[in-house]
Amino acid sequence: MSKSTSVLLSIILTALVVGGASYFWAKGEISSLREEMESMQETEEATEATEATEAMAEDVEEAIAEEDRSYDDMWLSFGDLSFYLPKGWSESQAMQSSEGVKFAYISVPDPEYNVQLKITMTEGTTYGENQEPLAQQYEAKVYQVACGGAYACYALVFLDDYEREIVFQIESDQEAPADLDAPWMPSTEVTRDELIQFLLSVALTAE
User: Fold this and answer.
1) Count of domains observed in the chain
2) pLDDT digits 0-9 by tens, 62-97
């Protein structure tokens, strides 16, 4: 065997040995990485399962709390019409009537102040004939009605036979600004969507 041939064989043998070692090293690393990824996937699935279980538990707790409320606690009656009170809302003053106007006070949650939602309802509406409703659900339609100041005003049409105009006003023990020079409304967490959903929950008062 010539000297050049011997050198060539040595180079090839060295390459095979080094390459084989690299191959087995890489194979081991891939196997380890695969096991790590499978472990991470199992952890993620376990986390998702835990979050789903916690969410279900919260739903069950809310359902139990809802069942603890009596019918009178869940519904506010304005004569022949009743409205569902969201969780946390409660009637603080029984409905009163004055010259055909009915009103009630509802305590609503607030982290800082004692807040009440005054609801005034009168028969008849003043929305335009061609006016599109803000929202509708089943047989209830809610329309925007113009009003000024710190009020939210709507018209409600239910079953095409009941037409009511409703004014919402927030009252609170929050002090008004000293330099007040315009209509002011106390802060509240009650939203416009909550007021509309309250109106859409209308039902005939149970006898």
Assistant:
1) 2
2) 544 444 556 557 888 888 889 999 888 888 776 777
Tokens of 15: 């390459």
Q: For residue 118, give the nearest of 93, 154, 99 by alpha carbon.
A: 93
Length of the chain: 207
Contacts of residue 75, defined as CB under 8 A and 6 or more positions apart, other chains included, come to 82, 83, 84, 85, 203
Tokens at 21, concatenated:
């070692």
Instruction: Round to whole Å and give the CA distance between 12 and 7.
Output: 9
Is residue 175 within 8 A of residue 136, CB to CB? The reply is no
Q: How far apart are the first and last CA of the chain?
A: 114
Q: Are residues 77 and 61 in the same domain?
A: no
Question: Which of 68, 90, 107 represents a domain boundary (last residue)?
Answer: 68
Considering the domain architecture, whether residues 77 and 162 belong to the same structural domain is answered as yes
Q: What is the pLDDT of residue 36?
A: 72
Q: Where are the beta strands (DSSP E) in the chain?
A: 75-78, 81-84, 90-98, 101-108, 115-123, 135-137, 140-144, 151-158, 162-172, 203-204
- The CA distance from 135 to 199, in Å, is 10
DSSP H/E element including 4: helix 3-68
Strand order in the sheet with 90-98: 90-98, 101-108, 115-123, 162-172, 151-158, 140-144, 135-137
Pair of tokens at residue 62: 């809310």
pTM tops 0.70: no
